[in-house]
Prior knowledge:
3 strands, three-stranded antiparallel β-sheet, alpha+beta, 2 domains, about 110 residues
Amino acid sequence: MDNKRRHTIALILIGIAVLLIGIILKIRSKEKPPLRPQYRLEVIEHWASAWSYEIYYGDQLQIKQEFVPGIRGKKHFTSKEEARIVGTLVLDRLIVGKSPVVHVEDLKKNGISH
């Protein structure tokens, strides 16, 4: 066999190997990644006009907010919507790595007055 033919065969074998590696990598990329815990919000009714929220990371409770944050005293959320709005605000901050602290300005901006 001459050198030209050997080089041609070597190039063909390398091409086949690269093609097989590409196929394997494509198949592996379609496999589901391992499940990671995610944050989730639960809004809870205690009794008429008394709501709270809880934020979980996976199955672990991270925040249990029974009272409106950012104000003096212990005042419950008066509606499910209020608890959901503030809980979502806190949840969004946690997801992006920001501080979950809620201030009076945050409450006013979201239409929650107490």
